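In this section we walk through a basic example: taking a raw amino acid sequence and producing a predicted 3D structure, encoded as discrete structure tokens. The instruction is simple. Fold the sequence below.
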Amino acid sequence: MSENSEKRKKRYAEDPEFRERVLATNRRYAERNAEKLSAQRKEKWRSDPDFRERGLARAREAWPKSVYGITLADYDRMLAEQRGGCKVCWKPPETKRLCIDHCHATRDVRGLLCGKCNTGLGCFDDDPALLRRAADYLDESRGIAPSRSPELAAWPVVLTAAVATRPLADARHIFASGPPSA
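The resulting token sequence is shown next.
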């Protein structure tokens, strides 16, 4: 580096007025040449894999912090606490990363989930009572006595015959619960 460059660098670091003038000059140049600079960045993104990888790494680092308030170190710590898998089904991620699950009301991060489990919770609007009813429904369809949540306890369990869906299928007895039919 030349002697002039060294002096300029030192002055920039020590003189706030000089630094502000340099920054203002740079801003004006960027405003006047926005299209040219954008085209240069796009071309560099296309042609320079190192530049692209550094940009992607910055985005991966910044995104969870800006959306959920956690760093990649927090994510890695949570993943280690969950033994490297989804907090619900325990499966390791099929893609590069697990989803960051959060409460939509409080924005608190609850854990890391695979895409299927995250979507499933979202489809049930994060409602534990609704999820319990769905679990009871699955248990009943397998002949397992449901946990009978208080709201279902009032509904009678009725033994009914299933309609044959195939000509040679035997009628199967199934348990149905829910409001009594009129």
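Looking at the output, two observations stand out. The first helix runs from residue 3 to 14. Residues 166-176 have pLDDT under 50 and may be disordered. In the next section we compare this with other chains.
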